[in-house]
Queue: 2 jobs
Job 1
Amino acid sequence: MEKMKERKIVVAVDESQESMYALSWCITNLVSDTNKLVLLYVKPPSAFYSLDAAGYIFSNDVIDAMEKYSMHLVNSVMERAEATCRDLKATNVNMERVVGVGDAKDVICSVAKKLDADTLVMGSHGYGFFKRAILGSVSDHCAKHAECPVVIVKHP
Amino acid sequence: MEKMKERKIVVAVDESQESMYALSWCITNLVSDTNKLVLLYVKPPSAFYSLDAAGYIFSNDVIDAMEKYSMHLVNSVMERAEATCRDLKATNVNMERVVGVGDAKDVICSVAKKLDADTLVMGSHGYGFFKRAILGSVSDHCAKHAECPVVIVKHP
């Protein structure tokens, strides 16, 4: 079996259990020590002028707080992902964090392309709770539009 | 990395280049010697009473010929798949042929479930030339409905 060349595997992670399960699957089944593992988190675009439900423009304080919360979320997801890797003893794997901003389905495909990923791995459900209403839409889109092989992992 | 337990990987193969590429990807990236590789081919249901385009009922001779052709197709795809495995030096992998009959998208999901597959691998395009008009429909369906992780591989 030929497993020489460094492969680059991009795993889309978010705050869902399913994305952590997808990461575990990836480490157990796909990743070897010669691979590069890219943990990709996509956050929704920052709101410069945001209206709340009642039509008020958010004050800078609120925007700052949201920004801080969003960075906190990124860090907590990334730390959880790295802990998952450690738990599965994938400590020799070359790992990298990438944070994208925008519409998850487009950002995931374009990052996979830009990084020249060999494989894209993701959970089957929505990406982040902003998206969860449209179950599966992100993975559907990526399975169709990403140029590399895409692994869709369901939480059992 | 934990790669002990025998995993069962089902690869859906058909007469397309893409499905052979998906198989190559699978062997190069996913399969190790302790895995069981199931080559799954799905043929459309046999026609007992078939009308041709002009509305004539096919004679038994035509049906026999079609049946023979379909078995020939199964064998040629399976042999090509096994040759692909040999070419990639995956000669120690425990391999099995499974031929299903029916609607590819349903048969693939149900075989994966029945065999308790750990992973299902397939090309991104239609399954067999009967289906190719509806590009991607089979892999879309399987990515949504199969219970195990699904790898969708595109021909580059």
Job 2
Amino acid sequence: MDELIMKGQKAKKASYILSNMSAQDKNQGLKKIGENLIKRDEEILAANKIDLQNAKSKGISEVMIDRLALNKDRIKAMAEGVFQIIELQDPVGEVVSMWQRPNGLQIGQKRVPLGVIGIIYEARPNVTVDAASLCLKAGNTVILRGGSEAINSNKVIIDIIRESLKETNIPIDSVQLIEDTSREVATQFMKLNEYLDVLIPRGGAGLIKAVVKNATVPVIETGTGNCHIYVDKDCDIEMAKNIIVNAKVSRPSVCNAAENLLVHKDIAIEFLPLAIEALKSNGVEIRGCRATKAIVNDIILATDEDFRTEFLDYILSVKIVNDIDEAINHINEYGTKHSEAIVTESYKASQEFLQKVDAAAVYINASTRFTDGFEFGFGAEIGISTQKLHARGPMGLKELTTIKYIIYGNGQIR
Amino acid sequence: MDELIMKGQKAKKASYILSNMSAQDKNQGLKKIGENLIKRDEEILAANKIDLQNAKSKGISEVMIDRLALNKDRIKAMAEGVFQIIELQDPVGEVVSMWQRPNGLQIGQKRVPLGVIGIIYEARPNVTVDAASLCLKAGNTVILRGGSEAINSNKVIIDIIRESLKETNIPIDSVQLIEDTSREVATQFMKLNEYLDVLIPRGGAGLIKAVVKNATVPVIETGTGNCHIYVDKDCDIEMAKNIIVNAKVSRPSVCNAAENLLVHKDIAIEFLPLAIEALKSNGVEIRGCRATKAIVNDIILATDEDFRTEFLDYILSVKIVNDIDEAINHINEYGTKHSEAIVTESYKASQEFLQKVDAAAVYINASTRFTDGFEFGFGAEIGISTQKLHARGPMGLKELTTIKYIIYGNGQIR
């Protein structure tokens, strides 16, 4: 606990320096980090080897081990990610708007760093580099709490980052790691209101739920995506097929992948056999409603639970709906307000869907897979917010800042 | 508990209708509310009389009773507040920005209502009308939980609001009151994540602290203001005196009032006797540091605690600092990141203060008392945020909205 408070104090102190540094200075730090990651890759790999051995002896799943595992190429990719962040425009300092009041006061909104950001994440050591670099670029100090599986890799990576900062003007306490990976310390971290300005969890549904439940610090909830593709009666069937196949199979394990297909009843007989065949030939298991099963028999009958589930796998639930209203209501009730798409040639239907669906990203005639900071053109991504406060959808550098009001007077009193 | 969930469900359902209503329809509802408040003022006063009798029999303070008490003029002022909200521009529907990606996707950010807003407040029945009207105008449904002292007044006011909505197309469940004012129900309300998109506490430090501690719903923290006026060595002494007097005495009970005066040592001997005399003649008790007491003897010696206290009263703590850096560091350590001001004729000092002070509103040569939605020109205010997520400083209608990404494609897949 005392260690946590000390880290909080150091982070806050460093943030008052870092938040006033120029983009040039911050980029210098990032450059050193990228270079030293490559230079010292053997050290990282040695530590990662220990993590992998521990993981295997604990019988951890192959998927988890793949997330944990580093090699020279992956380290190079991490470093290149840092070099890319250097190229991005620094959002800090922009005066977003400024106006004059009748009494002569000039009131402006200036973009400033959030301050101290906490990140809680799981077994992926690349998050350590990625999150630290993005926070730095936006002028924030960061306290990282990674999963126990990656602790040896993380320790070395953080050493490299902090020693890189030593070669620059950036305070080394701009980046700190919580080395005690116990659950108690994590819970205390979530309540570090005096020092943390925001806490961002990155990981699975369990982690995010725990953070939302326990944190007293402001949280940005990220992640869960129970996404739908709704195929309207007036649509380009070929386009619809391509979109659902892409949204489901191009990368099933990510949050912007589709988990559900909704089909208007008037087009179901024509569309579903084609679509389901294409999906099946890509290895997708179909769980359909009764009406779907009446059209394509060789599928599993979906339960209500299936429609609520983010499979993150080669599984898709399918439902036939009577009209667009039923589709919209279903999405608003069963969805997680992440990414939702309609495929239609109807102007009216497209506008109604756009207006009434309550989600971070609503698409007309495109795959939900585009909900991503890079695909949106932000050049980076710290996560995808599924809450409505502060940031919604993909979060880039701008979402790691806040504003302060700056007011120029000449003696005004009230 | 069940009642709370039912209210949550109704609010969520109503929000899907209200969020798609035109400004015209919403204004029609507000007009009816304002008219009916005036028409039915006798009913409100009768209920308020019961609240006042209960309060007096419980021996509640005069200040609290003044906040609770209504009369015809106060009800008229409440109604006029509603009519003013009609005049404000509806923030919903604005496409804040839109851009095209190389693949042809058009990505836009559209301003939409937050959804369901919870408001927890204390004894002031005017908050009931004010908060409900602002939420409605921005397309949000609202669940209100006022203090037990005002429950009879609130019940009648909410009846009037809901019956007013009945005369329009707005769902009556757009505005609901939690009638059970127990602490247990309040705590459950703070954890109503499935239905509440945001919770805004309005009231004293105790209430806000309880909400931050207990809520699992996203919260916008409002309120506490331990504000400073820093008088730099190069300043217009008359201006500095006017600003500190205004910031302290024009309304000591509000969060944007100054609680601390910091003075550069080089100007202290000239400035402090003048300033303290002016403050004392306005009834202000001075609690100064040792150096201050050496210049003006007839004051109380300040404790460290005094510098951390939001007095909300005719009390001011005074400290002499060696330079602007000490002033900035003191503010960043002791302040609550609300409103901070420098009085200076130095360009360099003004820019340094603006840059380095970490607060929602930073002033050059003006009173901190301007931190207010109306003074900023927003035409309304739901509170003053002292956190950094989502909104910082005075929150108007715009801060009661979020954005959603709208994406126009023509078959893009990834």
